[in-house]
Amino acid sequence: MKIEDQEISFKRLEKGEKMPFDLLLLADPSLDLIAEYLEKSEVFAAVFREEIIGEIVVFQSNPETVEIKNVAVKPDFQGKGIGSFLLEQAIQIARNGKNKLISIGTANSGVSSSISIRSLDLSWLK
Question: Is 2-125 in CATH node 3.40.630.30?
Fold first, then answer.
């Protein structure tokens, strides 16, 4: 994916790395809940020019199911397909892990968090 002809990368954040709490708090207003699910989840980031501009948190809730706990994009980058990009990448990771179900369990913080699923490539679900 590109913005302004610059590539956006997708990377896993390791447990020791600094977490993007500014973004995590956009999607979930409870720092306590964030800390609780981060311990058991994988965090992935969309990176543009060495800056984390989006994140998605994926939790393996059982052997065949992953749950998306948190997804957020910096306000200046919203509406550019970053949220869809994050979801597509998380879906691919879940698919590679042989998961049969992906659930969305994000908090309703009052912040607009809608993502157009019409633009996602879900053709592999057939």
Answer: yes
